[in-house]
Design goal:
This protein has 482 residues and is α/β, with parallel strands linked by helices. Helix 1 packs parallel to helix 10 and helix 10 packs parallel to helix 12. The longest helix is centred in the middle third of the chain and has 25 residues.
Amino acid sequence: MKEHFDVVIVGAGLSGIGAAVHLQRSLPNKTFTILEAREAIGGTWDLFRYPGIRSDSDMFTLGYSFKPWKQRKAIADGPSILAYLNETADEHGLRGKIRLRHKVRRASWSSREARWTLEVERGDTGEVFELTATFLWGNTGYYDYEKGYEPSFPGRERFGGVVVHPQKWPKDLDYAGKRVVVIGSGATAVTLVPAMAEKSAHVIMLQRSPTWMINRPSVDVVAETLRGALPEKLAYDVTRWKNVFLSMLQYQLSKKRPDGVKRWLLDQIRAELGPDADLSAFTPKYNPWDERLCLVPDADFFRAIKEGRVEVVTDTIETFTETGIRLTSGRHLDADIIVTATGLVLKFAGGVEASVDGKPIVPSDLVNYKGCMFSGVPNYVSTFGYTNASWTLKADLVAEFVIRAMREADKRGTPVITPTLDDPTVSKRPFVDMQSGYFQRAIDQLPKQGSKAPWRLHQNYVKDLLLLRYGSIDDGVLRYSR
């Protein structure tokens, strides 16, 4: 007989651990397990091991609503975040619920049985087995953990040095005294470059086009003051809301007053590099928040430039050579190590093959419901955080909504919950309205959002708070059945 659970949570990263805590605290009678394909919990924060790995959101909003962030640095390094996740799992007794090296390969919903059947492969033994669940809760993030995005660079095979992608960082890579070229200008590159510059001979950040960057202190002075004046949880909550509103204000100003925000961002950089600095390498052609802003904590990236340890070059690659990279302009960049910080590969629902009553689910045919469920797919939730704010803000709200929906289903005696799109006035739109390359490369493979509520993806914490925490759980769109 197949093992059965009320809820199967897929993924033991930031979202999955949080989902389990919310579920265990609010619905203690529900049976659940957490299936994690990798050999350790932590998700992103266990996978990425490159120098300087850190958050690009403050930990007062990236941290859980139920667990205050206690360390001094608000912009935290990867090991500290991983320790926070492990501490959360231990505090709530989740170790016994987590099954490591358990990869979900297929998920099949049966309306007759009102349950999911999951085909699971054990990475340690190769065994493939099945288990069933009333509710399936995906917390696999949005990108492929197996590989990052790497363009096909001409002449790459000729290069005599080391080429590495940040997602597959070697443990023994020695870059001390070496010449390094980092290809890319996104969050990973901006993190890597100053960290590598501390030991390497010289680092060049090679960008095809600039990215908007914003300086921010790694220590939140307001948070430090509140910690000394208020009880711990209250200080955390006040700081969290302060940062939520500042983030929302910055985003709204970027959309409504882009020219003013551009000047403000460039003034920050000019203050670090000097009044005579050429800012063309930091002035993108797009508006702020058309792509996510790159966070520069304590201006470390600009300090490394000013000290001469880092150079930013804007050009395109003609070819790799035996000793580096030749650019379209004719310049040659000598390198011992080339880092391809060229982005992510998006993968919906961790690449699980899913079906409903024998019909395969095609992600691009789905329409998002309230940012977490999908039209015509029963008892399934996928946690997808914000692109313009901290991931966990949305993850916490999704968990609250899932629990409310489950309670309603239990009260009615109707275990099946299905978002149903039968409004012909709802038009389909891209899932995420951002120009970032990794989204644009996968736009045709992702679900859609609708033109109006509850099918609209807001990317706004306050709107989602009203919708997911306080909005009606019986809206006529979410159908309850047996």
